[in-house]
Automatic annotation (TrEMBL):
This is Bifunctional protein FolD. Belongs to the tetrahydrofolate dehydrogenase/cyclohydrolase family. It comes from Nocardioides vastitatis. Residues 7-121 form the Tetrahydrofolate dehydrogenase/cyclohydrolase catalytic domain. Keywords: Amino-acid biosynthesis, Histidine biosynthesis, Hydrolase, Methionine biosynthesis, Multifunctional enzyme, NADP, One-carbon metabolism, Oxidoreductase, Purine biosynthesis. Residues 140-281 form the Tetrahydrofolate dehydrogenase/cyclohydrolase NAD(P)-binding domain. Homodimer. NADP(+) binds at G166, C167, G168, V234. Catalyzes the oxidation of 5,10-methylenetetrahydrofolate to 5,10-methenyltetrahydrofolate and then the hydrolysis of 5,10-methenyltetrahydrofolate to 10-formyltetrahydrofolate.
Amino acid sequence: MTTATRIDGRKVAAGIKHQLAGRVAALQAQGIRPGLGTVLVGDDPGSHSYVAGKHRDCAEVGIASIRVELPATASQEEIEAAVLALNADEACTGFIVQLPLPPHIDMHRVLQLIDPEKDADGLHPTNLGKLVLGIPGPLPCTPRGIIELLREHEVEITGQRFCVIGCGLTVGRPLGLMLTRPTEHATVTLCHEATVDVAAHARASDVIVAAAGVAHLVKPDWVSPGATVLSVGVTRTIEGILGDVHPEVDVVAGKMSPATGGVGPMTRAMLLMNIVEIAERGGLSSAGDPTEVGA
Ligand SMILES: Nc1nc2c(c(=O)[nH]1)N[C@@H](CN(C=O)c1ccc(C(=O)N[C@@H](CCC(=O)O)C(=O)O)cc1)CN2
């Protein structure tokens, strides 16, 4: 019984962070200290873990950390004030608002307030518009990480049939846009909860990206032998973290990413990449000590 080649995001992300550390050192030699800001609202354990990981990565490559934490009861106005403060903070090169936000918050109003020049997530309407139009701008971190991961593992993209399961704001929708750019030129089927027979779309694909947040959704009989399968969505249970791809897919797929240690570390590496790119373009940044605000 053969098993799929493991797509190792931790290893690729480590290489990218090593390279970024050199670029950060070069910026610092010019008196520029890039800084990442995060706005974290509420107690979601996943969000806390992801934001902690983002700041661990910052420390590793020499990027300053600016952490803003608000309670789950924070009002729309309080969150918007935090965004405006980071827009104005010269120590902050770029920042993100960790999603999801609590249900009483209008996420779109919050994202629209981010200065597009400081949008480290590429989720501001101006930057998503640039992506649609093919104008350079910051790219959403998970889709960017997925494309890097495929390239590093020599998975063909151009002309290949992709089945992207889930069309959320951070993964599926922007991934569809990025994969169909002239630089990628993949053929993409974007599946969602109203798609009839997702399994048939998946079986007809060379690459499956599972980003639905449904544990073990993709079964072995959804995968054509030798296809590449990326597990992106996760479900946290008392037994641990379950990915969107059933572990037995391993015996059918040619290449496969694990539920953790695959796309997740690449999302974080691409966030740092966006920050370094903003700083290198001459975006706002500062020299001096790391900043820790509200940690
Ligand atoms: N503002 C944003 N919010 C969210 C995004 C995003 O791109 N921008 N994406 C997701 C979650 N996400 C980013 O924040 C994310 C997911 C996973 C990881 C990660 O490192 N995962 C580890 C496991 C970590 C753990 O044990 O909890 C892994 O895969 O090894 C980082 C970031 C939703 N929100």
